[in-house]
C-alpha cells in the first residue's frame, strides 16, 4: 500500500509551492522573497536576480539590489517593472532601490484576493492528484492486481488525505490573510 506515498508527496509539494507563492506576495515590508520569481536574461540564460546581485534591506521598507556586474542593472530594472510587483525601481546607476509603500486598504484587499486565488489553485492541484491516484487504483483493480475491497479502501484513504490537504491549504490561506490584514 505504499502507492499513497507518491501522491501524498505531490500534495505536500503543492502546499510547499503555495507557501513559496505567499512569500512572493508583497506585504508592505521589504522581503527579498518577492524577487524569487523574477528572472533576467543574463548572457542568453534566464537567471534569478539573486544569482546576479546582492540583495539587502537597509530599512524595513526598502530593498537594495546591487548587481555584481553593472551591465545587468537595466535588465534588472526592466524585469522588476514587468513583474506583478507593482513597485517602481529607483536606479542610481549602481544600486536599484525598491521602496515598499504603506499598504492601502484597496491594495490589502487585492493582495487578499491574490492569496485566495493561489489557495484555489492549490486546492485544484490537490484534487487533480486525488483523481490521478483513484485512476491508478481503478486500473490496478481492473487488472486484478487489487481486490474490489482494496480499491474501495484506497479510494476512501485517498479522499481522507485529500480532505486533510485541502484543510491545510485553507489554514495556510487564513494565516496569510490574517498577516495581510494586520499590516
Structure write-up:
With 183 residues, the chain is an alpha+beta fold. The protein has helices at residues 3-23, 73-82, 105-142, 148-182; strands at 39-42, 45-48, 53-59, 62-67, 90-91, 96-99. Strands 3-4-6-5 form a four-stranded antiparallel sheet, covered by helices on one side. The model has no long low-confidence stretch (mean pLDDT 85).
Query: In terms of quaternary structure, what is this?
Result: single chain
Percentage beta strand: 5-15%
Q: Poorly predicted ranges (pLDDT <50, ≥5 residues)? A: none
Overall outline: elongated
Major pleated sheet: 4 strands, antiparallel
Quick synopsis:
The protein is an alpha+beta fold. Helices cover 57% and strands 15% of the residues.
How do the helices and strands line up, and which of them pair or pack?
Elements (H helix, E strand, L loop, with lengths): L2 H21 L15 E4 L2 E4 L4 E7 L2 E6 L5 H10 L7 E2 L4 E4 L5 H38 L5 H35 L1
Antiparallel strand pairs: 1-2, 3-4, 4-6, 5-6
Helix pairs in contact: 1-3, 1-4, 3-4
Annotation keywords:
four-stranded antiparallel sheet; alpha+beta; elongated; 4 helices; about 180 residues; two-stranded antiparallel sheet
Amino acid at each position: 500500500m505504499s502507492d499513497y506515498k507518491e501522491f501524498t508527496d505531490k500534495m505536500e509539494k503543492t502546499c510547499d509551492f503555495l507557501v513559496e507563492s505567499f512569500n512572493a506576495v508583497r506585504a508592505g515590508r521589504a522581503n527579498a522573497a518577492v524577487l524569487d520569481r523574477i528572472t533576467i536574461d543574463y548572457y542568453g540564460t534566464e537567471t534569478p536576480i539573486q544569482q546576479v546581485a546582492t540583495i539587502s534591506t537597509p530599512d524595513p521598507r526598502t530593498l537594495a539590489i546591487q548587481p555584481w556586474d553593472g551591465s545587468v542593472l537595466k535588465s534588472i530594472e526592466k524585469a522588476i517593472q514587468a513583474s506583478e510587483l507593482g513597485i517602481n525601481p529607483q536606479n542610481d546607476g549602481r544600486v536599484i532601490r525598491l521602496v515598499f509603500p504603506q499598504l492601502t486598504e484597496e491594495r490589502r484587499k487585492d493582495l487578499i484576493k491574490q492569496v485566495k486565488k493561489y489557495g484555489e489553485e492549490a486546492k485544484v492541484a490537490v484534487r487533480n492528484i486525488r483523481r490521478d491516484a483513484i485512476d491508478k487504483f481503478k486500473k490496478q483493480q481492473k487488472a486484478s492486481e487489487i481486490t474490489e475491497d482494496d480499491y474501495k479502501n484506497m479510494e476512501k484513504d485517498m479522499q481522507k488525505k485529500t480532505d486533510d490537504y485541502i484543510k491545510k491549504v485553507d489554514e495556510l490561506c487564513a494565516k496569510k490573510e490574517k498577516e495581510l490584514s494586520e499590516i
